[in-house]
Please model this.
Amino acid sequence: MSNRKWLLGLIALVVIFGYILSQFFFSTLKINDLVRQISPNKAEEASLKYVVLISQEQDNPFWREMEKGAKDEAGKQGIKLVYMGPIRSNPTEQIRLLEKSIALRPDAIMIQGMADPGYERLINQAVAQGIPVITVDADEPSSKRLAYIGTDNRAAGRQMGELVLKDHAGNGKIGVIIGSELADSQRLRLEGFRSVITSATGMEIVDVRSSNISHIGAAKQTRDMLSQYRDIRTIVGFSSLDAGGILEGVKAIGQEGVRIYGFDDLEITRQGIARGEIMASIVQQPQEIGAKSMALLSSFFQGDKLTGEYFIPTYVLDQAQLQGGGISP
Model:
């Protein structure tokens, strides 16, 4: 028996070591690709401006939409965009990619803000070396970043709260799924949502859980939440993959009458809204964020000043809009 335990322990260690090694390997590949995209070309095309966009998660639909908007506008402005990001949400790898980007000295860096003192120091280091940094999706306001372009996340949270109050029926027990406890955008959305819900009579947020920016994570957290709080009748998701996961979790546990609200415009969310299984979604405009960011950087390269925050509005996606009723305010 002891030999078997020893063998199982050894296998577990090998698996863990293999995972860590694979993450390091993939991270190295990304960094090498970043070097390849910037270094040789920059020597060949000295007049071309290079901008690095570091995403939170490489193939997340939100970030791919932002990449598209930024790339389209970059083409119009004569700018070369280099897009990078972790395969899965990984703050450590985001920091590593930022470090490497600074070392390669692009003409500007676009990054998501992160609640991490070391990350802020890196932003300030980049600016001190003459590399302008703008934040997208989530801000880093205490850093020396040039500007923030993106959603007013606290206002979007309030918008969600007002939507839930308008549609409210039955008891006021609410569950919340956030994408990440580390993302400042999620914290601000939750703050805005709380400010509306706590001021309403009979409404109560009974549980807040993190999906770790994962459809599967949102489904699991929803199942666990409903198992513990059977009287929840509304669940709100604050990251793009949450609504579909919440819907899966609600169906898995077999609880009827749960009103689901989500964030962003994913196909799975649209389908849920069309079927009446998801009430509505607060939609950001990542393409517009990417395009606006690149247009502002182009203006900056030409001598214009950028300061503060540039908010891109959100809108409500519901059945009325899907059926041609227009965008809700």
